[in-house]
Hints:
The chain is of the alpha/beta class. The protein has two domains: 3-66, no CATH class; 69-277, Rossmann fold, CATH 3.40.50. Helices cover 53% and strands 10% of the residues. It has helices at 11-17, 21-37, 41-68, 89-97, 117-130, 140-152, 156-163, 181-194, 218-230, 242-253, 261-277; strands spanning 106-111, 135-139, 168-172, 199-204, 232-237. A five-stranded parallel β-sheet has the order 2-3-4-1-5. Helix 2 packs antiparallel against helix 3, helix 4 packs across helix 5 and helix 6 (140-152) packs across helix 7 (156-163). The longest helix is centred in the first third of the chain and has 28 residues, at 41-68. The N and C termini lie far apart (75 Å).
Amino acid sequence: MSARAIDVHALPTMLTALRLPSFHRHWQALAERADKEGWPAARFLAALAEIELAERDTRRIRRHLLEANLPAGKTLATFDAKVIPSVPRARIEALAAGDWLETGANLIAIGNSGAGKTHLLSAIAHALVEAGRRVLYARTTDLVQRLQAARRDLVLEQALARLDRFDLIILDDIAYAQKDQSETSVIFELIARRYENRSLAIAANVPFSAWDRLFPDKAMAVAAIDRLVHHATILEMNVDSYRRRTAASRRNKSETPATTSADILDAHQHEADADNLTDSKEDITT
């Protein structure tokens, strides 16, 4: 094509058709600089390509963070690792690197209510998304309802297949409430489908020995736990509740401390959870 046949005025339209929005936004300013500094054509083109790729990555990360539905504000920058001495910062950073996703390994955080399980898993997931992974956060009850609706409409297989596109699914509050047989069966199907293929991250406030509230069928409970822990990192986060620590801090700063009913309930929950967690490792396969 000869130089005379090129219509420079049509460039914006061509860039839009080629889906190069960053080229579209920056080419004029960069062309002026290239002309002024005497850049060769290859350098001008490479500079535009670098801008396009960088902004494309930014848009992708923004899109995948929105898709992930992670709780707002729960990142590694806002996570205080010092309150959980059993989980060193170096280990958290290694998990955030994401190598474990390559083998479909799992991540399980077990600890008291308010210990920071959701924050930690969400922070790791946020880092994974920024590194190019696709993640989905869901409260277990919400995801179960979606899968049950899919089963009712005879499209459960398609629903599970759509979840395959996520490198990691976070199931929060997995043992929060008693579930019936139909609910536990869809959870088990999700666990079985992703076993050694795609990763799960699970937050639970009770040890495996108490998972009968999630899987009333003991055989299903054993089979589910066996698949989850086969290739898994298990984080025991048996520390004081963040809410309890905050309440205690407020009381210490007050000249007339007051104990609320919420504080009392939280304290009792903390003591009960601590007792339950004592034998969690020994109870994994029972």
